Amino acid sequence: MKEIIKETKYLQFISESLSGKKTKTIQVINKRMQEEIATIEWYGVWRQYCFFPSLEFDSVWNIDCLQDIVGVIALLMKERRDKNE
User: Fold this and answer.
1) How many whole angstroms separate alpha carbon 65 and alpha carbon 58?
2) How many CA atoms lie within 13 A of 39 on its CB side?
3) Separation between Cα atoms, residue 58 and residue 49, nearest integer Å
4) Would you give the distance in Å from CA 13 to the centre of its chain?
5) Which of 12, 30, 36, 40 could cross-link 26 (Cys pair, CB 3.0–4.6 Å)?
């Protein structure tokens, strides 16, 4: 099931629960082209959600987009902490 969890001027963050995975994967979509340009996924080695830019596109990130990404990661980490309490 896919759900838009945040939408900004340039980006859409779409949550997707994949079968066989305990954690969410967030697709980062370029609103103008409607293409996935990155994901936010659980990185077990570091025990936290991390940002993974797509290897298919050369992308440039401004401060606003980076702050949006940080905000989504912070939200995911808070949800995880709250769930484990």
Assistant:
1) 15
2) 13
3) 22
4) 6
5) 40
Alpha-carbon distances, residue 19 vs 1, 25, 28 (angstroms)? 10, 11, 19
Three-point CA angle 40, 43, 49, nearest 5°: 45
CA 39 – CA 52 distance, rounded (Å): 5
3-state secondary structure the chain: CEEEEEECCCEEEEEECCCCCCCCEEEEEECCCCEEEEEEEEECCCCEEEEEECCCCCCCCCHHHHHHHHHHHHHHHHHHHHHHC
Other residues' Cβ atoms within 10 Å of the Cβ of residue 38: 21
Spatial distance between the Cα atoms of 54 and 65, rounded to a whole number of angstroms? 15
Q: What is the pLDDT of residues 3-15, one digit of tens each?
A: 999 999 999 999 9
Strand bridging mode 25-30 / 11-16? antiparallel
